[in-house]
Write a structure and sequence with these properties.
- It contains seven helices and three strands; from the N terminus they run ααβααββααα.
- By secondary structure, it is mainly α.
- The protein has a three-stranded antiparallel β-sheet.
- β2 and β3 form a beta hairpin.
- The longest helix has about 35 residues.
- The chain is flat.
- The protein starts with 9 loop residues before the first helix and ends with a helix.
Length: about 180
Amino acid sequence: MPSVPSSPDLAHLLSHAERRVVRRLAAVLAEEDCTVEEWRVLSIVGDGRGHPMSEIADHALMPAPSLTKLVDRMVADNLVHRRPDPHDRRRVLLHLTARGEDLHRRTAHRVRADQARLLDETADGGALAHLLLRLTAVAETLLTASDDEARFTARDDDARPPAAGDARRAAARSTSG
């Protein structure tokens, strides 16, 4: 039986849950010879609108170089293809091929069914998924606010006149050298 996290640390609990859910997802996708990373690409590109690589990397939780290698393999497997963005020819958008659409349809069905079963087992009426979305949004907001505050504080420190002791030390250094 898998171990249960002993720490009440939120990050640890979430990591523990994420590992098990992803392992379960990998098992479901393996039935269609699809990896979790491929599924993440298929799931965003499956809407038919075409997406730039930066957006896909964010969704797939992958660094750009790793995503590029994965997409190259998916192109070779005839699952996706690249097209120039009609609104910005410098960007490339990723789209599903007919084979990719078929794989996306099959895997999406399996993933939805398995996730529904998993969430049904929690017997929370979808509250868990809702709370995780809220937690993610709040954490991002607080992180952004913290980053903004740190930048603001750094600017204030740069603009702040030196304290009296700082000025005396600076003057002493300039006359002693």
